[in-house]
Amino acid sequence: MADRARLHSAKALNDCRAALQEFVIVARTAISSVDSDIHRVTHWLKLDRPAYWKHEIRRREDAVTACKLEIQRKKLIAAPEPASVVFEERQLRKATARVESARERLAAVHRWGPIWEREAGNQKSACRRLNDALAADIPVAIADLERMITAIEGYVALKGPTPGGEREPQPPSELAPGSSGNQPGDAVEPSQSEGTR
To answer: Is the pLDDT of residue 184 over 50?
Structure first.
């Protein structure tokens, strides 16, 4: 005789459906956050940083020019005696180094721009595949689960006779102390004395 299916509830399928629905919400939130970060860093690298360092280069070059003018001014004032411009020359070296640092930063921004765009494109491509799954594959899976849940709940709600018209076996009840163990309707074998009457 074939084994019968024993289905009591669709709890596991309901849990799976709830987990998929939660995953969709969490994944879409994460994708939105990633897109926002990509847009922010792209704007920072392509527009904000180049403009900032170009402005810094001009400002620091002005500081270099101011240091040179100060050295010339002190020399003119002290003429014909030699002027002490040790402090001013030290300031000039610092200002020149700051200009070089700003130029290096601007070059780094230009160097990292294309690298960032390539990596951002790869990330968007990966997110696009996940977005497609969230928009198409997972809703189909959730719909399939809902159909299975509906079918199982309908099956569990059925109350028909068991195959062959037999009742489902009931667990044996505990016997009271001193009882013979015979149930009503059980056949009782005649005792030896009754058979000799």
So the answer is: no
CA atoms within 13 A on the CB side of 115: 5
Got the DSSP string for 69-92?
Answer: HHHHHHHHHHTTSPP--HHHHHHH
Alpha-carbon span 95 to 97, nearest angstrom:
5
Q: At what angle do helices 86-132 and 11-43 cross, to 10 degrees?
A: 150
pLDDT tier at 129 (50, 70, 90 boundaries)? confident
The answer to whether the beta carbons of residues 116 and 122 sit under 8 Å apart is no
pLDDT, greater one: 164 or 20: 20
Domain boundaries, the chain: 11-158
Instruction: At 168, list the tokens.
Output: 């489902």
Which residues lie closer than 8 Å to 107 by C-beta, 6 or more apart?
none
Could you tell me which CATH class the domain 11-158 is placed in? mainly alpha
pLDDT band (50, 70, 90) for residue 52? very high
Peptide bond before residue 161 is cis, with ω within 30 degrees of 0: no
pLDDT given at position 159: 64
Of 53, 60, 38, 40, nearest to 111 by C-alpha is 53
Taking the CA atoms of 32, 38, 41 and 42 in sequence, report the sign of the dihedral they define. negative
How far out from the chain centre does Cα 178 lie?
67
